[in-house]
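Worked example 4.2. Below are the chains of a multi-component assembly; read each line carefully before continuing.
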Amino acid sequence: MKYIRKINYYETDGMRVVHHSNYIRFLEEARCYMLEKIGLPYSEIENQGFMIPVLEVNCKYKFPARFNDIIEIETNIAEFNGIHFIIEYTIFNSTTNKVCATATTKHCFTNSDLKPVSIKKLRPDLYDKFSLYK
Amino acid sequence: MKYIRKINYYETDGMRVVHHSNYIRFLEEARCYMLEKIGLPYSEIENQGFMIPVLEVNCKYKFPARFNDIIEIETNIAEFNGIHFIIEYTIFNSTTNKVCATATTKHCFTNSDLKPVSIKKLRPDLYDKFSLYK
Amino acid sequence: MKYIRKINYYETDGMRVVHHSNYIRFLEEARCYMLEKIGLPYSEIENQGFMIPVLEVNCKYKFPARFNDIIEIETNIAEFNGIHFIIEYTIFNSTTNKVCATATTKHCFTNSDLKPVSIKKLRPDLYDKFSLYK
Amino acid sequence: MKYIRKINYYETDGMRVVHHSNYIRFLEEARCYMLEKIGLPYSEIENQGFMIPVLEVNCKYKFPARFNDIIEIETNIAEFNGIHFIIEYTIFNSTTNKVCATATTKHCFTNSDLKPVSIKKLRPDLYDKFSLYK
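Applying the procedure described above to all four chains together yields the following structure tokens:
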């Protein structure tokens, strides 16, 4: 699953490169794109009373992206046990042909009060859909 | 009413100055600070079922602020008729002794569905408090 | 000239709508898109030693956009005299069929030290290109 | 070293809690604060031709912070070998008395072209200052 977008001027900082915090936002964009493509759009998940907060973020920065560069984010569900899941990402700069960053994020499903829930028990249909892509 | 804060690195852009969109965020900080100081903290307003969306923003940029500069934001309620109100701001850079920007924002009170309400009718106590500072 | 993009989750705030400061960023995206389409990409302008700072922003907010909504931004060069120019914008929410916001931004050309310059004198070719779209 | 700040409205997202990407920005604020307190303000480091890019970020999210909450960020230089260094952080929410997040960031010193340099060789004085706080 590949998500593609351009770097905006307001995403650069005083070093004239993308501020490192913005890659964490790009990961979210790529994750939402992936969830939509596998038939589980995040807006639908929220409408059904679930949330998918971020439990952990790891990001290794390689080569900085700059204004107007095109980045491609490859996402992959690395682990899923019905409660937690881990997504892996590679952010590739197709303007410079270099990897910008690699990252993982860890998540769980919660109810709307942010209490963790087992999607396997509550919504076996969502569980099955998700498991397919692991 | 004067709100003071430092410029963060992530608030600068590729020109090595504060990105112009961030001043709009600084105005919000100064506005919340002012509301708190006059006894109407925004969190309390929200808890009582009201919201204060922004209807209009005008900002004139004079001299850019840079990383680590200290800015002081003067706020003033310029107009208030129980439905709408206008706040005026001057953002002064005390590191360079120059005015960064002057701005106004226009607001109304709404219920939690973002429908405009007359605070004068619904909450004369809030109306009176607010009127004092006009 | 129409620039189209989706609303990201991180662009919403505690009211579950796009934070008002983010529209100012969307205007920049649309402006860069327009400059590219008329043959004056901003990265090229910067490479030639010019900058286009924002002198003034006016934004009137109508109906809020939410996560996943698609917005379309219409841009138009309203004034240009070789020194200053004004761009007008309409941000249309094509998910809700409502206008989110209308806005104008005022700019000038500067050198890399942020001193205003007359593009008409310094670069009549850029001046002509720009004038075509007024 | 403890850095204290309030949560702004624009830092919350549609879940009405601080967006996870913003904690990465708070870490930068706390890091700059620490560097200043130990006599190595980041602006001075940049003026001397050095930069301190972020090589890696790890953040574990515990309990979300909300608008107006006060957070306290404890920072600590965990490793330093003259080339790389690692900073550890605990973000404590003093409004709720809960830990929001724990994090580490990895950095190196580079020249202004973002090439890694040995601060130990180039600037033994900075090296000594930094080593004191390891």
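Take a moment to check your reading of the output against the notes. DSSP finds four helices and seven strands in chain A. The CA atoms of residues 13 and 118 of chain A lie 41 Å apart.
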